[in-house]
Every structure is written in C-alpha cells, then in structure tokens.
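Case study 2.
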Amino acid sequence: MKKIFVIVFLIFMCTEIFGLTGNANLIPVKIARGTYGNTIEITYYPGSDIIWNDGLISIIIPEDFPTLPTVSPGYPGEIKVSYFRNGATIEPISQSNITIDGRAITITAINLNPNDSLQIVYGTKDNGGSGVQAPYMPGVFYFLMYERPTSTSGFVALENPPKIKVTMLDLTKSANVTSVMAKNTFTYSLNYTNISNMYSVNEVVVWDTLPQGLKFIYSDISPTSQSNNYLLWNLGTVNYGNNGVLNIVVEAQPGIINYGEIITNTAKIQGSDGYGVYLEEAINNIQVFGVKLVSTIYATPSIVILDENFTVLMNVQNMGNYHAYNVSPTALTIYGSGNATKISGPVPASVSSLTQGSTVVFTWVYRATGSGEIYFSGKATGQENTLIIESNATNSNAITLLMPTNTSTPINTYTFTPQHTKTFTRTPTQIITLTLTPTDTRQEQITLTPTNTQEELITPTFTNTEIVILTPTSTETEKPTKTNTPTFINTVIPTATPDAIVYIDRNYFKPMNNEKIKINYKVLEQGIVDIQIYNLSGEIILSYSKNYSAITTDFYYWDGKNSAGKIVSRGIYFIVIKQKTQIIMKKIVVLK
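Prediction:
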C-alpha cells in the first residue's frame, strides 16, 4: 500500500501526462536476502522517436533497501550516472546534475539521441564504496522511474519499471542436445546454487515433471519419490555459497513428434530459512524432429449396385518435420452388413520417400458382392530412419450396396363370351365395336370368341367384368411447429451515481469470461485525464490518457489486460483517475 500512495503522490505532483517514451533494464536480476556489497545497474533507453533536450529522469529506490542513495564519493549507496553514446562511448554526468531527496534520485540536463543510453549505478565501488545492502525480506522490488524528455514536457512513468528479485536460491536447466528424434537418449542438467554468502537454506527440494514423449532412465541422485514422469529429490540443507548439479537421463519415445515440435521442460527448486520460502524455476526447450503420418480414407460412389465396381482412396500426408521412407498402406478391413471383394490395389503399392508436408494417394478397386452398408478401416506405415512409424487407424465414409431392381411390365388376359339376340339384321359389312375402359394403367390383351362366323351386329354381354379401382391412401404428415423459447441472460445493470466524479459499474469482474468494467468519470475542466491501474505491489500495469477541450462526461472500458495485452492475475487492483485538481482511487477485484 505504501508504494501505491507514493506513486499517487508523484502523479499528483506532475503537471502533464504523456505517452511512454523509453524503457529500462536492471542487473543483476536477483540478489541474496540481507547480503552486503551489492551493486545495482539500471540502463535507460530512450524512445526511437524522441529527442531529449534538457530532460530529466527520476528513480525511486524501494523502501525495503536499507541503504540510502548518496552522491558522496566512497560512501555505501553512492550514485554514478554516465551516458553511453551510440552504445559504446562512456561519458560521465557531473554530480552537480544529480539530486538526492531521500530515496528519490533526479538527473537533470539530460541530452539523449535515439541510439544513446543512460546508465545509473546504485552502490558503485569506483571510489571505494562498499555497495548496498539487500532487503531482509524476500520478494520482487520495483525501481519506479519517471522521465521528462524536454523542459516543456511533463513527467511520464515508465510502464514497465526495472525490478530485482531478492531470494536465496538460483536454478538453471540445460541439456546436452539442442534437438532430438524418437529413441534418442540425452541428459538434462539442473544446476542449483545458494547465492547467499551469509545464510544457509534448509529443506531444499527439486522436482521435475518430464514432458509427454520422454521416459525417465536414471539420475545421478536417486529420486526421493517418483510417480510416472513426476520426479522429486530432497536435497536437505544447502549451505551459503554452495552449488550442485543434478543430471537426469531420459529417452525420447516413438511418436514424440505428435506432442509438438518443441519440448518445454520446467524444473523447480524450493527452500526456506525462517525469513521466507524461496521458489525458483528453470525452463529448457529442445527441438523435436520426426515423421508424423496422417491418413484419411474415402470410398466412392456412396451407392453401388451389386456386381458393380467402386473405388477406395487413402490420402496419406507427412505432417512432421522430417522425411519418411517406404510409406505404404496396410490392408483395408471391411466392416458392416454388406460385402465387397478387392479387384486391385493399392496403387501405388508404396512410395520410397515422403518429404515433410507432402501427400500421396493410394487407390483400390472393389466389387460389391453382398447388399448392405459397409465402411473401410486402415492406416499407413513408414520409416523414420530405422524406426517404424504408423498413422492412427482411420475409417472411411459409409457406402450402400444394393440389389438390382426388376422393371418388367405385367400383361393381363381377359376372355369375353358374347351373347346373341334372337333377331338381328344382316348388313353387307358389319362392324363389331367394343368400348373397354379399364380402371388401371396396365397393358391389356383381349381375346373375343364369337359363336358364329357371320357378319352380324352383335351386342356382347360380359359375364364377368373385372374393374380395378386404385384408391390412394392419403397419409397426413404433421408439420412441426417451431416454438421459440427465449433465453434470458442476466446482465449486471449498474446503479449510476450521478453526483460522483468517478463511478464504476461493478467492483469485480471475470476477464476470462470476456467481461469488462466500465469506468465512468466526469471531466471537471479542460485538460488531461489520466487513468492508471496498479496491482497490490504498486506496479502500473496499464495507463490511459486523454485530453479534453471542454467539461464533459466520458467512460473507459477495462478488459482486465495489462499493457502487453495479457489478462492479469486474479486479485485486488487500484484504479487511479487524475485530473488537474482531483485524484480519485477505486478498488476492483479480478476473478478467474
């Protein structure tokens, strides 16, 4: 909390707020708790588009450091400032341009070009000084910095101030190879050190979870516990200044390329000394090379008549980063209620080489021999040097095998027996006219058998007339009725506070769910409104400024991301809104 109030006070003292112009780094990145004789170097790099002319930089030494800064030669905490022109030439800055006020160091009359840098040394030993003492308590400490490129510009707080870690342990991880393939054996080396020259660290343990695709073979110190790829070593007490190496031998397993082209392995070390618990980690990355075969099967057409031929295709692609040799498909297996016989294939039978990213297609011809639905299953094999590589088994689409359909037309035969009347009239030419109206559409063949051969006018009488009546059956199909069911989404409706200068629509939110908070504020006068968001350590994680020409109201949405575009960790954050005559702070909780 003290750091936050210091930052707010400094912002209040500034007259203008501009964008970030430069950046800084610090060495060493870590020092041992409570140790003496430390020298801390901060190097500042100006922005590429900013010309410094009579500028100014301020640095705040964290309160946890017992040694106060000074310009007195030979004293602990002596400050030394130098230019590095074009990254090489050293040009000292006069101590008359360095002002110390408590823990605040101010360097004035700074002139920098884009290729220049400025080095500030806290605890220089050039004049016989003894350096500075590290904080007693472990943690990460930030050296807040503010810059003003010209005499007419305003102060700007560096968004990512330099930092140093106070700890007792250090851990690095290396490997004796930079790349591996399946069946290669290699060694990880864990180097651990107690960086203190005064205190021992107790209950030291090291653990490592090997990535997928690696198999533990042995280590020069037997693990205290082991569960699958999780390994733990209990090192006990590590005295000050002591170090050691733990070697772990592993083997890359077949198919390791399927887990990615980079193996990232993280090991951790932990210990304590009564003042705190120290946790350090080390990461190592190794390139993976290998063959990765991916196969897909497709049968066409989707409907086949029995005794007809159809085609099955297997597409095989090498999606690895190493060439494969002697790639071929396995025999296909048929599943389902139908049946088929292989006529030919595969064509080609194999390919001698398949480079990374390349594809080959194998073709079979089958004949449908049994009705039903079937699909095919199979995979591809190849070689990665001398190692046999297989793709995952895959299934084709289903196809339907059908019996052939008969389309013959039935013929109906009807026999009619005509009956004669006793009286009839002879005519030279007599015509028998028959009118038949069948009620179906079948082709009919009619045979008439008269009882005499004379040409007569005959009125036939049928003793049996077949009438086929086709009665269609109407089947009513229900039309589905679509019912729209509204989905209600609860939305947080903020209760505005019209009289407040600043109000926020909620005091907590979940950025992981794409939630945002709305920061509403009143602009009381012309000028710049600056919004800065801090974490509990006093770090500025996000800054926003806007210049207003008139009194108005405005708002700003925060999506829970820092200046690097990454979602911040869960916890409490402070939102500081500054106008010329107003500084208002609000607290917000970020949830996961």
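The longest helix spans residues 2-13.
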